[in-house]
Specification:
The complex is a heterodimer of chains A (109) and B (238).
Chain A: H1 5-30, H2 37-43, H3 46-60, H4 71-87, H5 90-107
Helix pairs in contact in A: 4-5
Chain B: H1 3-19, H2 23-40, H3 44-54, H4 57-68, H5 73-84, H6 86-98, H7 103-111, H8 115-124, H9 133-161, H10 174-183, H11 190-205, H12 213-237
Helix pairs in contact in B: 1-9, 2-3, 2-4, 2-9, 3-9, 4-5, 7-9, 8-9, 11-12
The chains are: A mainly alpha (109), B mainly alpha (238).
């Protein structure tokens, strides 16, 4: 599959500029203005509102298996999720998830 | 050397030391991003440009997924930047401590305003009210300089050597695992959990909407659910 080179560069430039502007916004431009409560209340949930919906299809129908649900990947996702929540740690999630993936793939041949 | 300079230097190394443990988190994410980006077909230059200028793993992975889905450029930018909107909150929270820094220093502070540096600084800075603005800035920049070089180095290692890893290692799944690693520890409260569940259900239900717009709509609904759940819990407490 080929990607549009121009699109990639526009995405990189837009993300670089946009992200920097977000990080600089209040510190450099808006100063001591308080964010209203309702705005804070919604901003708190931006990441957890987008990322789960983004990856759910990748976990249920991975393209590497031609879109077929794959037991090894499903189990790895579950273990990573459980460990990440239990230990409150990203490292635990990554290592337990990858270990499960390889172990199940090995067992199922 | 005056004592003022000495303490600024001390503050810098304090920031460096406080943020150093998070190298352990940044390094694997960087490595995985490098692998995933080259796997998708980004060149080494493109991968490194993005990683150096954006330094935000979740948004970078988001862009990769949507590029692969051939989503329109505007949708990719809107979704990836929405993932980073939380940093406006960080920026506002830093104003009482760093708002009086010089304009040029603020550019550097903004560049290093990532999840880990903010998380560490938002705990330490309120405890050190006697610090000058120069010392606070030095502390923050020290934290940024602890993490960022490793983030960049490990992205490079992933991008340069990822192609040599055979397909048996299923590195396509590195990206979903990374996302899970970002999301799971963030589900601290009931509203966070409800927002995440809504996000999954709505995204799957709305996936028929063209141009990957379904995800943005799902995200808006999930954000509302999180915020409303928070309000509801607050009212019940009283």
């Amino acid at each position: 599959m080929t990607l549009d080179q121009t699109q990639i560069w526009i995405v990189i430039a837009g993300m670089a500029f946009g992200t920097f502007f977000i990080r600089w916004s209040f510190l450099g431009l808006l100063g001591d203005r308080e964010l209203p409560q309702w705005a804070l209340r919604h901003l708190r949930y931006t990441a957890v509102a987008i990322l789960p919906g983004l990856i759910a299809p990748l976990i249920l129908w991975p393209s590497a298996t031609g879109g077929e649900p794959d037991p090894a990947r499903l189990l790895a996702a579950l273990v990573a999720f459980g460990m990440g929540m239990w230990r409150k740690s990203a490292l635990w999630a990554i290592f337990s998830g990858l270990t499960t993936l390889y172990a199940v793939q090995y067992l199922l041949g | 050397m005056t004592s003022e300079q000495t303490t600024t230097k001390t503050a810098f190394w304090e920031g460096y030391r406080d943020c150093a443990p998070f190298i352990l988190v940044a390094a694997p994410f960087g490595l995985m991003f490098g692998v995933a980006a080259t796997e998708l077909g980004l060149s080494l230059i493109q991968t490194m440009t993005m990683t150096v200028l954006v330094i935000a793993g979740a948004a970078q992975f988001t862009a990769l997924i949507l590029l692969e889905e051939h989503a329109p450029t505007l949708i990719i930018l809107a979704t990836a930047l929405a993932v980073n909107l939380r940093m406006a909150m960080y920026s506002a929270a830093l104003v009482p401590y760093l708002g009086k820094a010089r304009g040029r220093t603020k550019l550097l502070l903004a560049y290093f305003n990532v999840d880990q540096t903010f998380g560490v600084a938002s705990v330490r800075l309120p405890l050190e009210m006697q610090w000058t603005v120069a010392q606070r800035s030095a502390y923050f920049i020290g934290g940024g300089l602890a993490i960022t070089p490793f983030w960049i180095l490990f992205t490079y290692l992933g991008a340069a050597f990822g192609a040599a890893i055979p397909p048996e290692f299923s590195l396509d799944f590195a990206m979903p695992i990374c996302f899970i690693a970002i999301i799971a520890p963030a589900l601290r409260t009931l509203p966070h959990v409800l927002a995440a569940v809504t996000s999954v259900v709505a995204a799957l239900t709305l996936s028929w909407i063209p141009f990957s717009l379904g995800l943005l709509i799902a995200a808006a609904i999930a954000m509302l659910v999180g915020a409303q759940a928070e309000l509801w819990l607050e009212r019940r407490k009283r």
